[in-house]
Amino acid sequence: MKIRKLETQLINQIAAGEVIERPASALKELVENSLDAGATQITVQLRDGGRSLISVLDNGSGMNREDLELSVERHATSKLPNSDLFNIQTLGFRGEALPSIGSVSRLHITSREAGADEAWVLKIEGGEKTPPCPASHPQGTLIEVKDLFYATPARLKFLKTPTTELGHAVELLNRLAMSHPEVAFKMQSDQRVVFDYKVSDSLKDRLAQVMGSDFAQNALALEMSRGEIHLKGFISLPTLNRTNASHQYLFVNGRPVKDKLLHGAVRAAYQDFLASDRYPLLALFLDVPCEEVDVNVHPAKTEVRFRDSGHIRGTMVSALKQTLAGASQKTSSTVSYQAVQAFRPEPMRQPSLTGYMPSPRPSYGTTALRESPAPVYQYSTAAPEIAPIDTPPLGFAKAQLHGTYIIAQTEEGLIIVDQHAAHERLVYERLKAEAGHVTRQPLLIPEVVELEEGALNRLKEVLGELLTFGLVIEPFGEKALLVREIPALLGEINVQALLQDLSDEIKELGSPLTLKEKLAEILSTSACHNSVRAGRKLSIEEMNALLRQMEQTAHSGQCNHGRPTYVELKRADMEKLFGRR
Fold first, then answer.
1. Do residues 171 and 227 share a domain?
2. pLDDT in tens, 218-268
3. Which residues of 415-427 are buried (b: 16+ CB within 10 A; e: fewer)?
4. Please, are residues 90 and 36 in contact by the beta-carbon 8 Å criterion?
5. Does 141 share its domain with 211?
6. Is 509 domain-assigned?
7. DSSP state, 395?
8. What share of residues in the chain are helix, strand, coil (percent, to 5)?
9. Ramachandran region of residue 106, left (φ > 0), alpha (ψ -120 to 50) or beta?
10. CA angle 57, 61, 65 (to 5 degrees)
């Protein structure tokens, strides 16, 4: 016979290849089981990055002997009481994790059900199961995975170093800890405590534990509801950003996910405030009715599919933009901290017996300072020495340094404004307002663009949205589109390449973001060219006028590339510089 049924052990090993990619994958399945069991305390121990040992101890509901035996059978689960794959209320539900792990490792499970007189232990080694035996154990479950992939040695070759594998495990556990602040998480690696998160009273406290105090101090609370869709979380000010998206955490119905649609919504919302190679920090939690999202599209359950992806994306973009608009003049505290550090003088060396102090460059506090070129500045003797009670948020201009930086006194300290960056944002916001009606440029000869069927259909579905951006296209036969007009701002472009890029963007993100980004980039460049340049001397009146415009303009806290337009130093910061506190 050409067709035969696979042996159970081989089936489990194949399933393990789909679900258990590395130690972190096994850890994910075990911790999700603990959370579904109602645990409030989870302790994880790893050895050799999880290769030698993965131990998960919880105080959940536990299992009796019968449940323990069934838990290691393939496709046995407690997570689907109604056998409804479109009403999943738990993190795990496939019933593949434990038998798959047991087929490629030495698996020991010890569990005691609430109210039971004794615990039971069950062992599986390379797929061979032994009957459960009585054991001593408190309420809850302890699962130990030893020698992962020992039964499939070829898989061991694909594991990275213990440090790398530990990093994946920490990342995974951090994500689960974020979505369950009511649960205490402790992680140890080779007898060393990696982290110990206590139960948190609020989501922000847990995020501070995981993402650090910088994020907590510069995070904007976000919350929005549209019908049965609820979005909440915290997002960073644009001036707090990173070089990659590793600090963007997204959750759907409490499940950590990596979804292109959701990441695309974040990118769209921040596109006016960050350069394309910079990424904000955030943790967002999206709750939707179970029937509106399919979490069963990937064996590892890290991807989801929404029934109405456009509505989800629109809700996210709107919520993010509204939240950012509410803090448009703020810059992150990390900017002020970096400024204070930059102002600190270098440690002075003790002078030699001859009184000569060797130094490669002038140091603050030495006579060498007199040799430095005098700064270019302006000042007003008429300005009061003490700021009045009604001092505006960005204060009153006092001086201009090097033809580039405006120094202003505020009620609580001073600010330093980068005049070019600040004016660039002001011009950009004005250009955006004036570009509300996009000017279209008719093509002298309409261009016919042929595309494959999928790309063609995707563009046909968004003809109205493309029209709002100034791109006028219409179907032309069965395999082509006719381009009649393009946004005038684009000038001479490759229309074929533009439509292909738009189609690819729609496929990936559900929206033609490429065109909007191209227009925004042109506006940003225009704003840069038409703004006050560095090196231009300004009068006190001009400086104050710029400050007042900043106070009245949205998002004036950062330039178009995510850099701060000003740095604020509180009086306490200055006192620290001079050792007064």
1. no
2. 889 999 998 899 999 999 988 888 888 889 999 998 888 888 888 888 988
3. bbbbbbbbbbbbb
4. yes
5. no
6. yes
7. -
8. 35, 25, 40
9. beta
10. 90
**Tens-place pLDDT, residues 16-74:** 656 688 899 999 999 999 999 999 999 999 999 999 999 999 999 999 999 999 888 87
- 413 and 563 Cβ atoms separated by less than 8 Å: no
Domain boundary among 197, 218, 243: 197
Contact 125/134 with Cβ under 8 angstroms? no
Last residue of a domain, one of 300, 325, 350: 325
| pLDDT at site 283 | 95
Is 457 contained in some domain? yes
- Rounded Cα distance, 238 and 241, in Å: 6
Average pLDDT over residues 70-84: 69
Burial 284-305 (b: 16+ CB within 10 A, else e): bbbebeeeebbbeeebebbbbe
The residue among 36, 85, 83, 76 whose CA lies nearest residue 56 is 36
CATH number for the domain harbouring residue 16? 3.30.565.10
User: What is the residue range of 210's domain?
Assistant: 203-325
In the three-class reduction of DSSP (H, G, I as helix; E, B as strand; rest coil), residue 347 is classed as coil
Q: Are residues 178 and 212 located together in one domain of the fold?
A: no
Closest CA to 286 of 373, 369, 226: 226
Token pair 């919504």 in the structure block, residue: 265
Q: How confident is the model at residue 357, as a pLDDT?
A: 35
Same domain for 406 and 524? yes
Tell me, yes or no, whether 503 and 531 share the same domain.
yes
Residue 323: its H or E element? helix 309-325
What is the pLDDT at residue 374?
A: 36
pLDDT given for residue 338 in this prediction: 61
Sort 104 into a burial class: Cβ within 10 Å, 0-12 / 13-18 / 19+. buried
Q: What stretches of 326-389 show up as alpha helix (H) in DSSP? A: 333-343
The two three-digit tokens of residue 107, written as one number: 């698996």
Tokens standing for residue 173: 């556990």
| 18 within domain boundaries | yes
Structure tokens at 460: 């046909």
Least trusted range by pLDDT, from 26-35, 393-402, 504-513, 567-576: 504-513
| Pair (193, 258) in one structural domain | no
According to DSSP, the residues that pair with 282 across neighbouring strands are 235, 248
pLDDT tier, 87 (very low <50, low <70, confident <90, very high otherwise): low
Sheet with 396-401, strands from edge to edge, namely: 396-401, 405-409, 413-418, 566-570
Residue 348 pLDDT more than 50?
Answer: no
Question: What sign does the CA torsion over 535, 538, 540, 541 have?
Answer: negative
Do residues 55 and 26 lie in contact, with contact meaning Cβ atoms separated by under 8 Å?
no
User: Residue 8: CA atoms inside 13 Å, Cβ hemisphere, count?
Assistant: 11
258 vs 197, more confident: 197
Residues 111 and 214 both lie in one domain: no
Beta carbons of 25 and 148 less than 8 angstroms apart: no
Query: What is the SS3 assignment for 349?
Result: coil
Q: Are 419 and 405 a contacting pair, CB within 8 Å?
A: yes
Structural domain total, the chain:
3
Tell me if 409 is assigned to some domain: yes
Query: What is the C-alpha separation between 208 and 132, in angstroms, rounded?
Result: 42
